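To start, an entry.
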Amino acid sequence: MIRLAASALALSLFAGAASAEPVAYDFDKSHANLSFTYNHLGYSTTDGRFGNWDGTLLIDKDSPANSSIEFTIDITSLDTFWADRDKHLLSADFFDADKFPKATFASTKVEQVGENQLEVTGDLTIKGVTKPTTVNVTVTALGEHPMAKKEAAGFAVSTVIKRSDFGMDMFVPYVGDEVTVTFHAETLKADATN
């Protein structure tokens, strides 16, 4: 009886060790958008986006806590739909893109907080300053993509950051300190590589 119990325990430990690894997913950039908004003088909301970014996404559907993401944004791809404003935002007054052309986010914790809701905490680095940041993630779809015929996942992501935390406090409080960041994306299970 003791030998049987020991064998069962050994099998369960082996099964745990052999559990599936998180799976890599690729972003479908033709169906994704990284955008932001901020308040301008209380009169309007200014919109912008970053057109060039990349990420490494690993998903564990059974244990979301084992999932992770690393994300890099090309700051020079900023577009607020007004060239003079873009030039100013990329200058040393704000992003100082010549010195700091990239921003990054690397997750440190993924927590499921609802049926399709995740909170992802990580290190956000902008302009050489790193701050812990939590983003709210809604899983909009998870299953076989009807056109690509492969596993897919869709997300709606949002967070609010203070630009002054990253050394960009010009015109605060007249131009809003809080910036709402929104990311919508489709992802497809990555092809296996040898």
Notes: Helices lie at 2-17, 83-90.
